[in-house]
C-alpha cells in the first residue's frame, strides 16, 4: 500500500513538473510569436493622454507637449523579429524652453523588443527631435558666432557660409543675442519646412540693432539620418 502511494506521489509530481515546463514553454512561445501591434499603438495613444517629454540633443530643457495627436498609424513588423516600427502623422504643440513649437507631419517610430516589452529606440517622435536638434544647434552657433559650426550645419565651407549677407550682418554684431520665439515645422519623410519667428539684437559699428521677423528654412536628411540646412542658414 505504501509503495502504491509513493508511486502515485512520484507520478503526480512528474505531471506537475511536466505541466509547469509546458506552461513555461507556452508563455515563452506566446511572447515570442504574439502580434505586438496593439501594444505599439497603445504606447503612442497613451502619449496623447499623458503628454510627451522629449529630450533634445544639446539642450538643457526638453520639449514638453501636453496633448500630441498621432493619426494614420501603420505598424510595420516581421513576425519573430525583435524590431518593429510605426509610421504616423503627428500634430504637436509644445514648449522648448522659451520657444513655442508646433509640428505637423511625418513620424517613424522604431521599437525593439526587450524581454516581454517593446521599447522605442529613439523616443516617440524621432523625426521632430532630430529636426529640433539641428535648429537648436544653429541658434546656439549663431549666438556664439561660431562660423565653422554654422557652415557644417549647412554642409558648406566656412567661406561659402560667410557669403550670405544676412549671416555676415548677424556675425558682425557685438553683444549679439539670437532669440527664437517660435518654430513651426512641416515634416515630410526626408525633409522639414520651418518658419522661425526670431529676434536678433546687438550692436553694429554704426548703431544698436533690434531686428524681429520670420525666416523660412529648409532641412533635409543626409545619408546618416541627420538634418542639415539645405537652402542656407538665414
Give an overview in words.
The protein is of the alpha+beta class and 234 residues long. The chain folds into 2 domains: 1-33; 58-71 and 89-106 and 124-234, Nuclear Transport Factor 2, Chain: A (Roll), CATH 3.10.450.50. 36% of the residues lie in helices and 40% in strands. The chain has helices at residues 2-33, 37-50, 126-144, 147-153, 158-162, 165-171; strands spanning 52-54, 63-65, 69-77, 83-96, 99-114, 117-120, 174-187, 191-203, 208-221, 227-229. A hairpin with a 4-residue loop joins strand 8 (191-203) and strand 9. The N and C termini lie far apart (95 Å). Mean pLDDT is 88; it is low at 17-33.
Give the count of structural domains: 2
- β-strand percent reads 35-45%
Helix content, binned percent: 25-40%
Unreliable spans are 17-33
Shape: elongated
CATH top-level class of the largest domain = Alpha Beta
Largest sheet: 10 strands, mixed
Integer-rounded radius of gyration: 27 Å
**What CATH architecture of the largest domain do you see?**
Roll
Coarse structural class: alpha+beta
CATH topology of the largest domain: Nuclear Transport Factor 2, Chain: A
Task: Give short descriptive properties of this protein.
234 residues, alpha+beta, Nuclear Transport Factor 2, Chain: A, 2 domains, ten-stranded mixed sheet, 10 strands, 40% strand
Amino acid at each position: 500500500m505504501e509503495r502504491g502511494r509513493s508511486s502515485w506521489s512520484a507520478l503526480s509530481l512528474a505531471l506537475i513538473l511536466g505541466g509547469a515546463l509546458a506552461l513555461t514553454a507556452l508563455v515563452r512561445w506566446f511572447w515570442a510569436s504574439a502580434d505586438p501591434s496593439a501594444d505599439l499603438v497603445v504606447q503612442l495613444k497613451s502619449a496623447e493622454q499623458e503628454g510627451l517629454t522629449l529630450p533634445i540633443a544639446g539642450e538643457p530643457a526638453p520639449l514638453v507637449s501636453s496633448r500630441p495627436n498621432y493619426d494614420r498609424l501603420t505598424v510595420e513588423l516581421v513576425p519573430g523579429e525583435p524590431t518593429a516600427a510605426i509610421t504616423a502623422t503627428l500634430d504637436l504643440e509644445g514648449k522648448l524652453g522659451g520657444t513655442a513649437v508646433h509640428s505637423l507631419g511625418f513620424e517613424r517610430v522604431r521599437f525593439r523588443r526587450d524581454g516581454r516589452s517593446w521599447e522605442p529606440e529613439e523616443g516617440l517622435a524621432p523625426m521632430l527631435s532630430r529636426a529640433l536638434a539641428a535648429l537648436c544647434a544653429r541658434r546656439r552657433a549663431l549666438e556664439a558666432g561660431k562660423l565653422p559650426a554654422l557652415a557644417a550645419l549647412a554642409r558648406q565651407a566656412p567661406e561659402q557660409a560667410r557669403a550670405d549677407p544676412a549671416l555676415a550682418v548677424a556675425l558682425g554684431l557685438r553683444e549679439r543675442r539670437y532669440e527664437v520665439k517660435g518654430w513651426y515645422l512641416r515634416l515630410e519623410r526626408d525633409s522639414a519646412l520651418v518658419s522661425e519667428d526670431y529676434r536678433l539684437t546687438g550692436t553694429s559699428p554704426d548703431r544698436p540693432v533690434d531686428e524681429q521677423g520670420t525666416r523660412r528654412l529648409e532641412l533635409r536628411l543626409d545619408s546618416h539620418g541627420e538634418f542639415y540646412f539645405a537652402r542656407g542658414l538665414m
